[in-house]
Amino acid sequence: MKIQEINAMEILDSRGNPTIEANLWLDDGTKARAMVPSGASTGEREASELRDNDKNRFGGKGVLKAVENVNTIIREQIKGRDFNSQRELDYFLIDLDGTRNKSKLGANALLAVSMAFARASSYSSHIPLYQYLGGSNAHVLPVPCMNVINGGKHADNTVDFQEFMIAPHNADSFRESIRMGVEVFHSLKNVLKSKGLSTGVGDEGGFAPDLKSNDEAVEMIIKGIEMAGLKPGEDVSICLDPAASEMWENGKYKLFKSSGKLLSSDEMIDLWESWSNKYPIVLIEDGLAENDWEGWAKLNSRLGNKIEIVGDDIFCTNKDILKRGIEQNVANSILIKLNQIGTLTETLETIEMAYRNNFNCFVSHRSGETIDSFIADLTVAVNAGHLKTGSGCRSERIEKFNQLMRIEKELGSAAEFAGIKAFKTDNDKN
Ligand code: PGA
Ligand code: ZN
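A: This is the predicted complex of the input protein with zinc ion.
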């Protein structure tokens, strides 16, 4: 695969902040484009997202330096060069950057090139991206974990926890599960309306009402599921991402948006245990902060046999950190975000390590997204069984669902919808 040309430009993400897109041509004339997302509640150990910090443009959030790095340093090195594989290109980029966290060229610059090359290579080989990435065994359609109530850093409301998701797992197909999920989303809107609550949405398209407590968010969702004619727990379960690193202050968790109450790590674990007894919860991501490793080990030993315990900020899609997490038994699943690590190959290495150690992989968008649907293909490529990519509205979220419906149609009878077995729950033992 010889790269004929590459260029990048500054575009906007779903929050109206700058991000980077790359266009790449192979010498057979194939052309592909990739766009990079951006997070708000980022992990401390994520690969470096290069921003201009020029306060005169976009409040310092411009990415012209990252764009220039692609258009000069990277272009000069890869234009006209033959790469036999994605791995060869990605390691070439990693070496060219030369830093541990990609701070020289920017993980955003590297990822745009990495994804564009993968997509161009799939076009050039006339193989759909999910199959190009995953081979002919790529066939599992994921349960869409839809973030229907937004709080934390993703919404200006009184809800401390960032994401309240529904998992419509009792379906025969992805298409059917999306229908169930969207019907719950619409009936939740009616529940909120009937109580005089706001139905405006947050960054990921979930509702963002001011609620009296965090519990109330789950209770509203349960009502929404029932109003849609479905059974909580049986048809649709609940997943949470409180993004607890954002609440961690001097060794305590501060419920900063509702009560201002401080909870110890043990009290947070008690809270998750009581919630998982009370509500049909199948997955908790970032229930504790990225630097509370002791707490994570306790949480996983208390709940890890019953529900899926996913590490996002704590692992940052980084295989070295995941290795430590496996050794210390802090979780049973890892969140997968390409831009946390900065190349496709490293992402696939992390996924491989997870699977070899009986961890699940939960593929994820970022809160600042574009219409690029790369993660839809990636989820099927690695048969991850579940993903989170927003709610039942906003095209940058919906495009991933639409792409998954296209993939399901294309796979035909080879497609398998993951259902409840996608999750690490006590059903595993049945
Ligand atoms: P982010 O949120 O993209 O703002 O980091 C997503 C998450 O925490 O999972
Ligand atoms: Zn998260």
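The radius of gyration is 21 Å. Residues 111 and 343 are 5 Å apart (CA to CA).
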